[in-house]
Amino acid sequence: MLTFLRRFLDKMSTRFLPILAIFAFSAVAFAQFGQEAPYQIGYAANLNIGDSVVNISNSGIQGGFGLSGTPAHTTHGNICVNVYTFDPQEEEIACCSCLVTPNGLYGLSAKNDLINKTLTPAVPTSIVIKLVASEPATDTTGGYTICNASVLQPNNYANVPYDSTVPSGLADTGAGSLAVGLRAWGSTLEPAAGVATYAPVSVTFLNNSDLGGGTTGVFPFNEELVQLYTICRFIQVEGTGYGICGGCQVGALAGQKQ
User: Fold this and answer.
1) pLDDT tens digits along 133-144
2) Do 47 and 85 form a contact (C-beta atoms < 8 A)?
3) Which residues pair with 202 in a beta bridge?
4) DSSP string covering 100-143, please?
């Protein structure tokens, strides 16, 4: 499978090569949104001891709730939160996407959703969790409700029509374009005082859109994002159902020792 995956990635990389310069142009601007930036990273540990969780919300910067008008207007504030799970060997072992409404609250279980059916046979006891926010596609009614973690666009920011703080020139290129408004929190198990005891601790999901500050060391759009969704596409096409993580549950979850 690894040989096939390498061939698949080589083929896909040539297809997406023209968009790399566009990603590099937009990197600096993402830092302006702090913890609502489109790309965030966290982790979960000691999954052999108990569960860890990720809780996500939508700040509403894309558009508020309860707006009157057409379905497209009332759902334009929605975002997709695309979830990519990595094992400690740097392998992307699962991906999925959750539709998150403005001010909505959803949760994912590491054991029941993120590693319950991984692409690789081995089930990891710790994982890296990457979240990428994007603009939903429209459904048959015109509402912004369709999410797919393997369909991301090479844009700057998604258009934010109800907020004037968006930098000028950062235009929406349509469904799948990167979006702001993602907020995420986590809980995992770490060793506690005493022998063989563990306790839940909070995991802060960090803005990974600026890795070095200024104009250098920024989020590597020219490679990282392309790899995230390209491998997710491989998982969807060739994984025969493996590597597709579970959907988000309504409401927050808490990590617990089993």
Assistant:
1) 988 988 888 888
2) no
3) 187
4) E-TT-EEEEEIIIIISTT-SSSSPPSSEEEEEEEEPPEE-TTS-
The domain ranges of the chain are 2-241
Both tokens assigned to 18: 């023209």
Q: What angle, 0 to 180 degrees and rounded to 10, lies between the N-to-C axes of helices 2-16 and 226-238?
A: 130
CA 163 centroid distance within chain? 22
Residue 109's CB is within 10 A of a number of other CB atoms, namely 21
CA distance 66 to 57: 17
Q: How far apart are CA 43 and CA 55, in angstroms?
A: 12
Identify whether the C-beta of residue 55 lies closer than 8 Å to the C-beta of residue 106. yes
Q: What is the pTM of this model?
A: 0.77
Tokens standing for 169? 């020139």
State how far Cα 95 lies from the chain centre: 9
